[in-house]
Structure to design on (297 residues):
């Protein structure tokens, strides 16, 4: 991004020229990035993209999978909970809601989880975040550690995650199939949850970390984390096992879908739903339906 382009963004947002600076790579960032982003609504970073755009060819993915299968079988260990998080403080946000609840912090001990997520957590933009189909946002702990190298001071929960899952030997949470059912926690007291879809990195996310390149940067690894719906209430805590209870068998993992939006994968998920093996959440189905009518990329 050139200085001229940046000035245009500032003027379009009506922001003071001091609200945004350039990093060493010429990326527009709020001064101090993470810390400053908590007090800055991010308006000067606009316009910002959405990673997967409905109506764009393959929703801006590449449209052709590489036959990446899930490494898991029913009953396998997916990983171990390393943190359970809920909102710590809201920040002002230039989006329609006027504030964001992306900044979360880890909780100690057993934490109650119900159909709307972690008890005590909430979302500011109810039109796009939260609700039964997005009750929990879950990230791979290895991914969180990777991003901490780019965002100094990044702590568990700061990217909006409710659960961090340290991966097992075979893979991580992004490697489960969409529609898979998981058990998290001890038998009898833990939760049961369905994988409903993937995070779609958005402008709110970029403003929350104070980087105009964040949507593209976070999306490059295609391990963006997953949403869960809660099928059985219970309690979870750090150290709990996450196991695959049952998988739909369509072979479309979360990372595979986010990376490709391959029409063949879209049709496989729709067929799995028709045969009663998979439940597709509405926010995922609209992308699946769109992809199913496209040509392979």
């Amino acid at each position: 991004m050139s200085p001229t382009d940046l000035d245009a963004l500032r003027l379009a947002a009506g922001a003071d020229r001091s609200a945004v600076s350039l990093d060493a790579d010429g990326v527009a960032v709020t001064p101090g990035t993470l810390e400053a982003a908590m007090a800055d609504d991010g308006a000067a970073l606009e316009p910002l993209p959405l990673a997967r755009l409905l109506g764009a060819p393959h929703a801006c993915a590449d449209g052709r999978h590489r036959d990446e299968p899930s490494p898991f079988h029913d009953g396998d260990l997916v990983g171990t909970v390393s943190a359970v998080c809920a909102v710590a403080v809201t920040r002002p946000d230039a989006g329609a809601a006027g504030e964001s609840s992306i900044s979360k912090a880890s909780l100690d001990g057993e934490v109650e989880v119900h159909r709307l997520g972690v008890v005590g957590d909430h979302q500011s933009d109810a039109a796009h975040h939260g609700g039964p189909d997005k009750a929990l946002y879950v990230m791979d702990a290895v991914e969180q550690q990777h991003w901490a190298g780019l965002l100094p001071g990044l702590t568990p929960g700061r990217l909006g995650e409710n659960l961090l899952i340290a991966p097992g030997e075979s893979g991580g949470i992004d490697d489960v199939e969409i529609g898979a059912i998981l058990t998290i926690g001890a038998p009898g007291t833990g939760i049961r949850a369905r994988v409903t879809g993937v995070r779609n990195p958005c402008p709110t996310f970029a403003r929350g970390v104070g980087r105009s390149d964040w949507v593209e940067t976070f999306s490059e690894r295609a391990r963006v984390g997953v949403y869960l719906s809660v099928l059985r209430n219970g309690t979870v805590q750090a150290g709990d096992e996450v196991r695959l209870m049952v998988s739909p068998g369509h072979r479309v993992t979360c990372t595979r879908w986010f990376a490709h939006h391959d029409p063949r994968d879209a049709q496989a998920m729709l067929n799995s739903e028709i045969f009663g093996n998979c439940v597709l959440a509405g926010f995922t189905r609209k992308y699946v339906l769109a992809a199913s009518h496209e040509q392979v990329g």
